Amino acid sequence: DTEVTQTPKHLVMGMTNKKSLKCEQHMGHRAMYWYKQKAKKPPELMFVYSYEKLSINESVPSRFSPECPNSSLLNLHLHALQPEDSALYLCASSQSSGTSGGKQYFGPGTRLTVT
Amino acid sequence: DQQVKQNSPSLSVQEGRISILNCDYTNSMFDYFLWYKKYPAEGPTFLISISSIKDKNEDGRFTVFLNKSAKHLSLHIVPSQPGDSAVYFCAARGNNAGNMLTFGGGTRLMVKP
Questions:
Q1: Which terminus of chain B is less hemmed in, N or C, by CB atoms within 10 Å?
Q2: Nearest to A70 by CA among A34, A23, A37, A105
Q3: pLDDT at B38 over 90
């Protein structure tokens, strides 16, 4: 099983809402990632978790709050977002960070629209 | 400062011919280079990679060439098929902690039947 799943596929939320994005993998990977991708742009790294601990935060605003409850799950909690946060949010996983030659497996993404 | 660049935003190729996608980088500390393919409304899919200590890696119809002195890599697809039509991202891994990838801007490949 080389699949990374993400829910929901689409999400529309108002600027005062609180919502969560979920990501799951069962490949035994110990590194998980959140990326943000705007239209016609490359994925931009937001967070890296290694062995369930946050190892990298790419200066992401606090309205995005990641959580890694266990080695298979990764959440992204959203609160008080702005319309410019509308994007495709991608989750990825890899064998422990530093190994695997950089190869990451990506989920299908959650298309987020902030109104 | 863009450390990984794909200067061609789009490329159109006839079915059966060769597709050549190019990528340039500036950071000599990158130790792995990867190509990802992305269809609309899907996440990127890993295609092929190459270590910085090699100059060529081949997998079926896909070959990646690395020219370290020129800080340039290319992906060759032979023969091209209509199903190859997608956006292709070049990515590079820094040899620091975190397995972080830096992506190029992508090239949209269109293979015409």
A1: N
A2: A23
A3: yes
